[in-house]
Backbone:
């Protein structure tokens, strides 16, 4: 059966819902696995309310759990123009040398302009007071706009550049990044540097929970999909079938492929922890051979590998919400979201979770 979406128009407005602003989580749960868990059963159409650590009760012996081990880079830098004025640079991906594709705000900055960065700009007031001014000035670096959405740094190395950055929290978190985000905006199994946003479904797992899952006979495979601008790029087309995803790097190791292939052959269930893990799995199923995918999953897409999905609650009108609707059906998903709103679940990156079986 083809996995390609049907060529039917779908309205962007069909993927809207109302969310009170106070339900947007601004901070993470202190204990990751104590987040709430909404369990949606597609076959029965039922909803259960649990705590995330209870997810272990929904696995069967020999299920396969797929986790995205991409690591978030401190890719948001705050600097100033030589002529004055604050500048924010989000490093999207490394091109070559010390040159990056980047989103720069304000956008009126022209090619040839230089931006100066100091660690001072990203420090708390307390840490600023601890730093000798001579040391701060000595660590300043700069970059130049060398093209449209492109910057080139003058710095000793890439690590120095990222030391001037902070965690790229999404814009709906209405606060500056803090020290705690260096821990909580990263999964406990993050390993491969490359993302500019966290695979947030995985934020609920603790090392102890992962170990407990494995001890119960559930297999775990680690894949990599580096989250880039494509994942959170706004859908502008009123007919969503016209939306084009941008490429994101993904890799499935030989060991992970073996686990996935065996699970499929033996008709064992495969759980994807997050929309990114799901997209990587479906890209593999679609026969994508190169290490980049622009796969867009929306209603009508026939998923080939993913049997169960662990996910957070996503923004309306986004490709993430559309993927969840493709997985469980628009009506069921919207009903589940409305119940989550009614029961005051916490939404988005630092929010609660949903398991779809």
Residues:
């Amino acid at each position: 059966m083809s996995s390609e979406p049907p060529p039917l128009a779908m309205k962007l407005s069909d993927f809207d819902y109302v969310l009170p602003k106070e339900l947007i989580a601004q901070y993470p749960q202190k204990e990751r696995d104590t987040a709430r868990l909404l369990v949606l059963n597609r076959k029965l159409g039922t909803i259960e309310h649990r705590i995330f650590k209870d997810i272990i009760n929904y696995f069967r012996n020999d299920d396969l759990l797929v986790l995205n081990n991409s690591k978030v880079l401190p890719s948001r830098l705050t600097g100033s123009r030589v002529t004055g004025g604050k500048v924010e640079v989000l490093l999207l991906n490394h091109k070559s040398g010390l040159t990056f594709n980047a989103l720069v705000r304000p956008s009126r900055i022209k090619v040839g302009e230089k931006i100066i960065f100091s660690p001072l700009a990203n420090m708390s007031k307390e840490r600023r007071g601890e730093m000798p001014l001579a040391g701060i000035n000595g660590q300043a670096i700069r970059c130049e706009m060398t093209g449209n959405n492109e910057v080139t740094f003058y710095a000793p190395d890439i690590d120095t550049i990222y030391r001037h950055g902070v965690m790229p929290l999404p814009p709906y978190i209405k606060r500056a990044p803090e020290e705690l985000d260096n821990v909580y905006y990263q999964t406990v199994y993050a390993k491969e540097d490359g993302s500019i946003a966290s695979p947030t479904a995985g934020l609920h797992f603790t090392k102890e929970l992962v170990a407990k899952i494995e001890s119960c006979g559930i297999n775990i495979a680690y894949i990599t999909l580096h989250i880039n601008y494509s994942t959170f790029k706004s859908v502008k087309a009123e007919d969503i079938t016209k939306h084009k995803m941008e490429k994101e790097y993904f890799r499935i190791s030989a060991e992970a492929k073996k686990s996935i292939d065996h699970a499929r052959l033996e008709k064992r269930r495969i759980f994807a922890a997050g929309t990114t893990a799901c997209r990587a799995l479906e890209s593999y199923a679609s026969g994508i051979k190169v290490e980049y995918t622009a796969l867009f999953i929306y209603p009508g897409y026939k998923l080939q590998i993913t049997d169960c999905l662990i996910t957070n609650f996503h923004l309306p009108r986004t490709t993430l919400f559309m993927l969840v609707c493709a997985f469980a059906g628009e009506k069921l998903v919207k009903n589940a979201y409305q119940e989550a709103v009614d029961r005051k679940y916490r939404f988005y990156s630092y929010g609660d979770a949903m398991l779809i079986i």
